[in-house]
Specification:
alpha/beta; five-stranded mixed sheet; two-stranded antiparallel sheet; elongated
C-alpha cells in the first residue's frame, strides 16, 4: 500500500479498507501495514535477544526474500507484464511467540488476500528502499556469521550455569535442568551445542521438545513428546509404570513454552529462562 501510485490508491482502498463499528469507522490497510512494521521490528529484536542463531536465520530469510523481490521487479520491467504483489499481513493472525520466522512477503505470489498490480506501484521508490534494506541485512549477516558458538557469550554463560548447577545440585543428587526459550530455532541451537558435551563429559542425557519439529534426545530410542517429559520427570509422571524398560533418564530438557502447558514437572528444581 505504501508504494502504490497516488492516482491508483483509491482503487485499493475501496478493495481492502474494512468498515468497523457498524460502518461508523474504517480500518485502513495502510494502518495494518504500519502495525505490521512495528511487529516485525519487535520480533526481530526478540530473536536477536533469544540467540544469534535465531537472528541469523531470520536475516537469511529476509535476505532471500529481498533478493527474489528485486529480481521480480527487474523481470517485470523487461517483460512489461502484469505481475502482482501480494500482502502478507494476514499470515500474522496466528503468529505465536514460538514462530521461528517473521512472516516475509512473497511479492509476486498469486496467493494472499491483498494483491496489487506491479503496474500500479512506484517501482523506483520501492526498488530503492529494498536495495537499501538489502545492504543493511547483508552487512548484519556478515557480522553475525563471525559469531561462532565459542564466541557466543550468552551460550557459554548458559553452559557454565548448567554445568555448575549439575556439579552443585540444589537438591542432593538432583541434576535436572529445564531450559525454556521463546523460539524453536533457539532450542535447536542450544541442543546442538549442549547435548553432546553433557553426554561425552558427564554421561548425562538431553532432550528437546518444541511445537515445530519432532522431539529429540541423546537416547538411542526415539521417544514422543510425552515420553520425553516422563523421562525428565520420572517421579511425577510415574516412569516406572509408563516406561519400565528404559533405565535412562533425561537431566537436561530444552524446549519452548509448549512443554509447560498442563505439565507437572516437579522433579525439576531449577529453571533457566
Amino acid at each position: 500500500i505504501s508504494y502504490i501510485l497516488p492516482s491508483r490508491l483509491k482503487k485499493y482502498e475501496d478493495l481492502y479498507d474494512t468498515l468497523v463499528e457498524g460502518g461508523r469507522g474504517k480500518l485502513k490497510q495502510a494502518d495494518r501495514e504500519r502495525s505490521l512494521q512495528a511487529l516485525m521490528t519487535t520480533n526481530l529484536l526478540k530473536r536477536l535477544e533469544s540467540s544469534v542463531e535465531a537472528f541469523r536465520l531470520t536475516l537469511n530469510s529476509l535476505h532471500d526474500n529481498h533478493t527474489r523481490t528485486l529480481s521480480k521487479i527487474s523481470a517485470f520491467r523487461v517483460a512489461g507484464g502484469g505481475g502482482t504483489v501480494s500482502d502478507w499481513t494476514d499470515s500474522l493472525t496466528d503468529l505465536e511467540a514460538e514462530e521461528d520466522d517473521i512472516p516475509v512477503p512473497d511479492d509476486a505470489a498469486i496467493g494472499g488476500k491483498v494483491k496489487i498490480s506491479l503496474a500500479d506501484m512506484d517501482l523506483p521508490s520501492w526498488e530503492h528502499d529494498l536495495q537499501v534494506d538489502l545492504a543493511v541485512i547483508t552487512a548484519l549477516l556478515e557480522s553475525m556469521t563471525k559469531v561462532t558458538p565459542k564466541d557466543d557469550a550468552k551460550l557459554q554463560h548458559l553452559k557454565a550455569l548448567i554445568l555448575g548447577k549439575m556439579d552443585n545440585p540444589i537438591n542432593d543428587g538432583n541434576k535436572k535442568v529445564l531450559v525454556f526459550t521463546a523460539f524453536a530455532d533457539t532450542a535447536s541451537y542450544l541442543y546442538t551445542n549442549l547435548a553432546e558435551t553433557l553426554l561425552t563429559t558427564r554421561g548425562l542425557h538431553t532432550g528437546k521438545v518444541t511445537g515445530k519439529d519432532a522431539p529429540k534426545s541423546t537416547l538411542k530410542k526415539n521417544y514422543d513428546f510425552q515420553s520425553l517429559l516422563t523421562l525428565f520427570s520420572p517421579r511425577a509422571k510415574e516412569k516406572a509404570q509408563v516406561l519400565p524398560h528404559e533405565p535412562a533418564e533425561l537431566d537436561l530438557l530444552i524446549g519452548t513454552d509448549c512443554i509447560s502447558e498442563g505439565q507437572n514437572l516437579q522433579d525439576c528444581d531449577y529453571l533457566v529462562n
